Amino acid sequence: MSALPLPPTTWTTGNTDVFKTGTWRSALPVYRNPPSPCHLACPVSGGIAAWIRQAAVRDWHGAWTTLTENNPFPAVAGRVCHRPCESACNRGGYDAPISICRLERFIGDLALAEGWRHPEVPVTRKERIAVVGGGPSGLSAAYQLRRRGYAVTIFEAQPQLGGLLRDGIPSYRLPRSVLESEIRRILESGIEARTGAALATAQELERLRAEFDAVYLAMGARRQKRLPGLDYAQPWVMDGAAYLAQANAGAPPALGRRLAVIGGGSAAMDVARSARRAGHEVRVLSLEREAQMPAQREEVIEAKEEGVAFLEGAMLCAAAADGAGGLELDCVRVLFEAGARPGEFRVTPVAGSEFVLAADAVVPAIGQDPELAPVRSLLDAEDALIRTDSRQATSLEGVFAGGDVASRARFVTQAIGMGREAAQQIDRMLQGRAAARASAEPALPLEAINTYYFPHAGRARDARLGARERLRGYAEVQLGMATEQALAEAARCFSCGNCIFCDNCLDYCPELAVRRSDGAYAVDGDYCKGCGLCAEECPTGSIAMREELR
Amino acid sequence: MGKMIDILCSGHAACPGCIDAVSARHVLAALGPDCVAVMPPSCMAVIAGPQPFSGLRIPVYQASLESAAASACGLRRALDVRGRTETQVVVLAGDGGTYDIGLQCLSSAAERNENILYVCFDNEGYMNTGAQKSSSTPRYAKTGSTPAGKPTRKKNFTEIMAAHRVPYAATATAGFLRDLVRKVEKAKSLRGTRVLTLLIPCLDGWGVPEDQGIAVARLAVQSGMFPLYEVEDGLRYTLNDPPKSRPVRDYLMSQGRYRNLGDAQLDELQREVDADWARLEQRAQASAVQ
Amino acid sequence: MSPGNDAVLLTGNHAVAWGARLARPKVVPVYPITPQTPILELLTEFQAQGELEAEIITPESEHSVMAACIAASLGGVRVFTATASQGLMLMHELLHYASGARAPIVMANVNRTIASPWGFWPDQTDSVAQRDTGWIQFYVESAQEGLDTVLQAFRIAERVRLPVMINLDAFYVSHSLEPVRVPPQALADEYLPPYAPEHYLDPARGESWGNVVTQEMYWRHRRDIGGAMDAVPEVAAEADREWQRLSGRGWDLVERYRCEGADLVVLTMGSMCGTAREAVDELRDAGHAAGLLKVRLFRPLPAAELRRALAGVRDVLVLDRNFSPGAGGVLHQELRAALYGTAAAPRVHGALAGVGGVNVPPAKIAELAGRARSSEPLPEAVWAR
């Protein structure tokens, strides 16, 4: 036997860290970064929890940088996004969702006010990319490709870039200065834009394919759907898009006093509200009941505030002059049932519910289809859309498509997201890399949040201009947040699955087994007894206990 | 708190999730290394380690159960004689060694205003011996020696100490860590007998899951069962956040020791807590007027 | 009054207080109890006058006094206290704690009856009942011996790292005025250097005391305490010799009074020795070969020395001013145990003499001695007064 010295019976000579109490453990905490529900819901996969956290600690530029990694239009999206993130927000199950969209607008506006610019990226790639269509999707794709070092050229049929953002959305919802600034900032990152350059023929597409290494088609959907049974040749019928284009250009057409607007989407709301500003008496006929309308809830509310009358669940069957200078609109009540896919629906007239509506003009705004004639011979199409796979690739090699030309989900941010996705795919294709596998990790559930750390606090109030004031012109309806409001709102964020470095795991560890260095935490398995206090006291659900079998 | 220098060591023998260990860790880190600890037998003494290893990076004297404060006085004077007048002498005691068997000598030390910091790790019973009642056990709590629930109230230790007119007596808990650390730092800045009572939910003794100790400590405060407050010079009462905001039921139902509590008993406890809270508020208001 | 070599009149209590003052303790926790209180009062008076640089602590009980003593001693400084009777009883738990902590505390105990019923009389049951606590115990006969023994006690305690209890009988010693020579401070300092322990509680050292030990460690710790106790007779003898060299006074561990050629020896402790001396003188005057053995060091019992002193003696009469119900006199038992198995051991006669402070005159001792000579010893001690 070795003659080890006997331990002294009195006075200590060392510390208990010689005992590796980690052997007691049956589970070990693991730091994780599961997706937040808002992130999964966001059409641009916007890292929302991350930029809100940066905002909460007043790192405004950092927040904007994070935002613009995914979306070059925070000031635009912060105004017009349909906010699926807010519907998904875990805080909605606690008190009220974070006002994510307005926070985004606050940061977007701050960036414009401060003149922040995208970093200048030199052209490092030899490949050149053509983007057809200078709307939100095309600009998004161009921006993302430019950031990755590609030379990008945009071909836009209209005299100005912006697409639907410019021609479809009235400036009281999206001020032109905001739009111009964000587009200009994208172009300043070194993108060539050729306006008045439409893709008119298949040959032109072939030429683009030959000249460029990849093509992204984002021409949008500009061909108006027509209401059957309505004579569009009549002077008292005007297509919604045409109405908006004139109204947005500052010259709303003269159409008599009483306008019947047909449709339940954003375009119909924009027509109706623009018409109210032009002094019309406006009635909206929608097949859908109010809750079913594709328009955003806020748009409907604001339209009502502005004096737009609604006839929900009603269908226009025929229109004719009443002989007294006005019109008689034959209508019927209908039951509306949405179909499985966007744009699909079924209507059932309610027997005996026919009624007649008096009006002076009819403005249908029931949606648009893309103009596929120039590309139809080269690309597969389906249901009046260019067919793409989930990564925006068309049937033609090297050609991608996105936005309204390829999707019925007619939301600005979805168009931006598709542009981003296409850019990533083009980049991968040109670099010969396989597509990254989409993560199947589910969103962090509310139960994983320790709500103790988030005292109940009301959502920032959505401030709007008074209705009377709105009708005087095209002043912006929705008002931005004040700085303090933005900070308070950012502080409400659960940061689901996004570590906020609060040190709770470190501070509450009874074993001193959690260490922090280089912006990360580590658990010392020598001492962790697996109690789970760190995971329990993690506000954001960023720690999970993983069972260990010994 | 992330930048603290720990005095407590890993490898101690506390149960997984022990709030005693969490609390001691922060008390000691806030006091810093110029400190000597006195411990009577308690869960803390287990954490202190087996010979020849210490769970603390400061000297510890393990005193007898009833003599912690008296021992601290002797040590204090010895340090003073050796010129170490700035060294903190801190007692880390349980509620048995404080409310019960050690109260006599603590009262005496407080009367002499001995320059010691006395920290009671109050887990409301003799948990180190397997959960028997102490005079800190609240009414109706089941323990090994009160299997039908304790019929009488918890002793109001902080008021007893305040009645000695000690410079500082306060309650705190690791559930409100910043408040706890602030109070330790405040106590450290004062001289004389300073007394902190820390509520320590005992996972095993109270019937609480391993990861719920902090949550239960918070409920104790939020329900008003364990109000956070400070008494300066025995007279000036300050109520600390958070105020009473939840029914005692929320707190009691989080623990096995109150299982099978009847509605009448629940109501009675709620009335007691309400009355105690009102009395505390009165004192705090009266102090504010002074 | 100032220290010097001139004798002054002091009570036993005050002589002990002087001894403590000369030892320069740094922490003195004390609690009043009759008949010890004058020790407390004189020490606090010294301190108030600036003549004793010590922290006086006045806790609520003797229990806390001893608790403070132990912690202060582990804090690295010299500690003194004093108590009596019930106070010592209350300390009992911590007496064990002190020796276990190897704390070289010195404590004076004024022997007094223990309740109930109440009494204030000289009786050594209080301290002999602490014989298993790991304290070294001295019993003194006079005020001078009390003073000198306090100084010797610190020297011994700090060498062997065990606490020392100095016992003086209530009133007979504690309150009797006697001429006492108070040595100059310089002499005390020469005899007793400042306390400088190897280990103590201090943040700069970081070592802790009292953590839980294994069976094996506990076994070794107790064995080590035994080893320290075993060294005491030699260390104490050295301390006494050195004190004699410096002060001219030595007291021995076991004092032999007129034992030359004695066939009967009276053996006792404390104030009873004074009475026994007179009895021995009377017996010698009457032509009997009688002597006195004064047991000054009771713990550890200097068995070897006792055996040597009693070699060739036919009868030993043990006078116990204490009573252990069911066993008799403690010194009586201890002596029989010490002599058991030795060749030609003397006959040991026991007398419970003076229990409760009753007066035992010299004539009574002479009578007991006569009876011891003429009869076989009884297994139990006899009650005497």
Task: Summarize the structure in words.
The complex is a heterotrimer of chains A (550), B (290) and C (385). Chain A has helices spanning 37-41, 48-56, 60-70, 74-80, 84-88, 100-114, 136-147, 164-167, 176-187, 202-211, 240-248, 266-277, 297-305, 412-431, 467-470, 483-492, 504-507, 533-536, and strands at 14-15, 27-31, 128-132, 151-156, 192-195, 214-217, 223-224, 258-262, 281-286, 309-312, 314-321, 327-338, 345-349, 355-359, 361-364, 368-369, 381-382, 385-386, 399-401, 514-517, 520-523, 543-547. Chain A has 550 residues and is α/β, with parallel strands linked by helices. A 5-stranded parallel sheet of chain A has the order 5-4-3-6-19, sandwiched between helices. Chain A has a 4-stranded parallel sheet with strand order 10-9-8-15, covered by helices on one side. In chain A, strands 11, 12, 13 and 14 form a 4-stranded antiparallel sheet that branches. Chain B has one domain: Rossmann fold (3-Layer(aba) Sandwich). An 8-stranded mixed sheet of chain B has the order 3-1-4-5-7-6-8-9, sandwiched between helices. The longest helix of chain B is centred in the C-terminal third of the chain and has 27 residues, at 263-289. The two termini of chain B are 34 Å apart. In chain C, strand 6, helix 6 and strand 7 form a beta-alpha-beta unit. Chain C has 385 residues and is α/β, with parallel strands linked by helices. Chain C starts with 6 loop residues before the first strand and ends with a strand. In chain C, the strands form 4 sheets. In chain C, strands 9-11-10-13-14-15 form a 6-stranded mixed sheet, sandwiched between helices. Chain C is 41% helix and 18% strand. In chain C, helix 3 runs parallel beside helix 4. Chain B binds chain C through residues 33-36, 38, 45-46, 48-54, 56-64, 66-67, 69-75, 77-82, 84, 87, 104-105, 107-109, 111-112, and chain C through 26-27, 29, 54-55, 57-61, 63-65, 67-77, 79, 93-94, 97, 201-203, 205-214, 217. Strand 1 (14-15) of chain A pairs parallel with strand 2 of chain B.
